[in-house]
Amino acid sequence: MHLAVLVMGQANNKLTDQIPIVEHVVTVNNDKVSFSVDDKTLLNCLEKNNIDVHYHCRDGFCGACRVTLNKGQVCYPNGEPLAFVGDNEILTCCCIPTSDIKITLE
């Protein structure tokens, strides 16, 4: 399996076999929650922890779930999303953390 990785908010087009195998801490606007591989996506993790995130498609097409990645790394297990993703932005519906991350919800 090849994963596209976003490193500290900067796009990294290098593909890697890196897969998260441990839980990672997700800091959201000063709140901390745990992401586990059972969550499948960052959006699922946030919803499970009652953190309100905007979304529509859940597939990386619309970009409604865009948040700012302040620290850490995420990957897109199904490849880069089709929606525009700016510098330091990620789409929660289709990414998973590969390290502890810090995000800001708009």
UniProtKB/TrEMBL annotation:
PROSITE patterns: 2FE2S_FER_1, 2FE2S_FER_2. The keyword Transcription regulation does not apply. Residues 24-106 form the 2Fe-2S ferredoxin-type domain. Keywords: Ubiquinone. Gene3D superfamilies: 3.10.20.30. SUPFAM superfamilies: 2Fe-2S ferredoxin-like. It holds the Pfam family Fer2. This is 2Fe-2S ferredoxin-type domain-containing protein.
